[in-house]
Every structure is written in C-alpha cells, then in structure tokens.
Design a protein that fits this description.
Elements: H1 3-14, E1 21-25, H2 31-40, E2 46-52, E3 56-62, E4 66-69, E5 73-78, E6 81-86, H3 91-107, E7 120-125, H4 129-134, E8 146-149, E9 153-157, E10 162-166, H5 169-180, H6 198-203, H7 206-221, E11 227-235, H8 244-254, E12 259-265, E13 268-274, E14 277-281, E15 286-289, E16 292-297, H9 302-314, H10 316-334, E17 343-353, E18 356-366, H11 373-380, E19 388-389, H12 391-401, E20 412-417, E21 422-426, E22 430-434, E23 437-446, H13 452-463
Antiparallel strand pairs: 1-10, 2-3, 2-12, 3-9, 4-5, 4-8, 5-6, 7-8, 7-20, 9-10, 11-19, 11-23, 12-13, 13-22, 14-15, 14-21, 15-18, 16-18, 17-18, 20-21, 22-23
Helix pairs in contact: 1-3, 2-8, 7-13
Length: 475
Amino acid sequence: MSTGSRNTWEAWARSVPPLACESTREPCPDPMATATRLARAGLAGQYVVYEADGGVWHFAAGSDVSVTADTGGITARAAGRTWTSRTDGRSLAAFADALSALRDEDDEGSRGEENAGGRHFYGWAAFELAHLLHADPASAGDRPLLHAMVPSVEVTLGGDSTVVRAVDEAWARKVADLLAEPAAGQSSTRDEPVPEGTEGIIAAGSAAYGQAVARTVGDIRAGLLEKAVVSRKVPLPAERHPDFPATYLAGRRANTPARSYLLDLGGYRAAGFSPETVLEVGDDGRVSTQPLAGTRALGADPAENERRRAELLSDPKEIHEHAVSVRLAWDEMAAVCSPGSVVVEEFMAVRPRGSVQHLASRVTGRLRPDTGPWDAFASLFPAITATGVSKRAALQTLARHEDGPRGLYGGAVFRGSTGGALDAALVLRTLIGTGDEAWLRAGAGVTAQSSPEREIEETCEKLRSVAPYLRFCAD
C-alpha cells in the first residue's frame, strides 16, 4: 500500500466515531424476532441482522460510515466526508487496508472500545470479486464488489443478555425505547403464506437451465474442469414487492441454517438462510471452512428422509462432488495456514438445511504469522461449493453458461472485527433485491455423471427453502 493510501485511510479512521455508550439489559425472549423488529424500525439508511454461531443475533445500523470497492477504486465515507483511492485491480487488498486503519486507531487507544474484540463491521462481497482473485479481471464488471458498514449502533442479542453499543446517548435511547416496547403490535409483518403458485415460481427458467447443465457436462467430459456449480435466476413477479423482514422471520422459523442474515446495505436487500460458511476466523488465528456438497430433499416423512440420507451417502456422483470440494478447500487453507495445522475435523456428515440435506465436512487450520483474515478470505472466496473445480476453469465456465452476473448470490455476507475475527456466510437460499427487482437463485454441482433432469430437481429442492416463506407488502 502506498504512503498516500495509508494517509487516506488513517484520516478516514480518525473520523469514525467510537461506540462510546454501552449498556447491558435482560435477554430478549425471542432474539430473532427482536432483531427483525429493530430492522423494520428504520433507524438508519443501512442495517444488517446477522445470526452468528450459537444462537446469537447481531443488529447493526448506520448511514455515515462505509467502505465500498470496485475494480478501479475504493471510496470511504465518514463524518460527511468522502475519501477515494485507486485500487488498480487490488480491490480486496485496498478494502482490507482501509478497515485495518480502524485497528491502528484502536491500538493507539483513542477509540475507547470496551469490547475486547475491537470495533465491528458488517458487509458483503459480490460473487464477481472471484474474477479478480482467480480468473479474468475483465469479467468482474464495473459494479461494486465489496461494501462494509461501520455501525452507529450495534445490538447483540444472546441467551444471557442484550448488549447495546452506540456512538452517543441519542442513538442508545432510540434502541432502548424500541427494546422496551411490548412485543405485541410492534410490527406490521404480514404472516400469511405466499399465494398459490410457489411451484410455478420455482420452475421458471428450468428448461434453459437444463441446457446450461448439458453444455457444462460437455465441458467436463472434454477435460476442461472437474465440476461447476451452475445456477439459475428466478425473478419474482414485478407487480409484487417482497417484505424482506417478514420473509426473513417466516423463513428462519422454518429453516436450519449455519448462518442467517437480513440486510439493506450498499444497494442490496437480502433475507437469507446460509447453509454454510465461507470461512470463520477467530481472534486467535484459528480458521475454518465448511464445504457442503451433495444434496437430497428433506421433507416431513422421517422414513423417506432416512432413505434419501442413505442414498446420499452411497451415490457415486454426490460422493465425488463432495470429495473434490473438500480436497480443494484443504489446498486453499494450506496456502495461508501454518504447515501441519490443516486438518479435516469432520468428513461427510449429513446436515439438515431447510428443505434439503447435504453432505458436510469441516476443514480447519491456524493462520501463519504473516497472514491475516483477509488473506484467508482471498484464498477461500468464493466458496468452492458455489464455483467448482478447478476454481479458475469453473469461473470461466459459469461466465459462458449462466444468465448474467450473479451479484450477491454465491458471494458472502460477513461480520468482522478490528481484533482480527471474520465470519463470512455463503449467500445461498436467499431472497435478493436491488432497485425494483427481486429474485431467488439456486444452483447444483455439475459433474461428468450429472443429468439435466436431476440438477433441475435439485435447484427446485433448494428453492423450497425460501419460496414458500415469501411474504409481500400490502398493495
């Protein structure tokens, strides 16, 4: 990073107000619903609800402090001012440099943060960042690739307490007043089911998708790659406007995700139930990733679910798809971890994820002293289970066969800290919106043994984790 850039981000970091006010309250009986109500309250122009590991929900809101990067430049905002710098294709490195300036301020002791992990930030990474990291930079496009918000207020809703941190007393009072309101009547959430026609929505575009699968199988049999996760976009009716908070609450009640999120941030709205994490990095440098690959439906009949589970564990196509994903995850972890520290802690377990069940493994390691969380992110992003093997060849294949850029789908929603922690959820099983458009998207891992009919059905199985829980705003 150049001296000019360092000075730029130091000036920006000095303009970011600390969360000087902190209070602890009794735990909420329903943290998920409370976080959703806070999101619906419209406290600020941007917000994120992020469900972390262990049943803890985080709500963060703010409008003033953000960092956004695209292929050519990076823009940071704070205190009504704007700082810009060129990235010259190093978007992720520049993004990490800007956020690291906040840690420099923490180290100087000028921020007054009471929480030992430092200041938190929330954001997203678009799938097209992958082209900068692993394939053809020209395919990354000109839209934002990374966006992060440093909140003005953050609420942590755990089983033992509710912790509120805010930049000043005014923000703290706004949140305290909302938390003090009785649960009944706090929101206008519409909880009726989506109108009949869910299966019609799910089936949209399936014929064209089958053709894309067939072309990808041809590429694989020609030796261009081993696997590609080909996806299809499912636009929602233009005349209906999704209620994102209501969809999140209804969908989360019915799903069993690894992470979940609800956001209006950096131009995207999303309500999602992520089946896996791209990576989890602790303050101590321990890093893990959780590849899921191999899928069968999960329904209401226990006997049928067990039959499908046994089928999943014995299907050569599913086992091969999973094994190659774990192999590449190992390689990507080894690139940033200390020698001998990378291990497969779990291999081919079966995990329920809403309307489907997946083969799941977990690969862990410990970061080398010369690497940090964003180095791990650069190595592991995007998740191998959303791209393919090899990652470069899969990205080139997806650019040929998919219907336009993915945007947020297949990317990540993350929560990190200036203390070195980073938790990034893979964006799958998600309602996504931007402007007046809203859509679902789902994919399936295509190998040499794939058939278009089975991969179409797999995308339908995955879409049923979200589509039945869509809720729409009143006309």
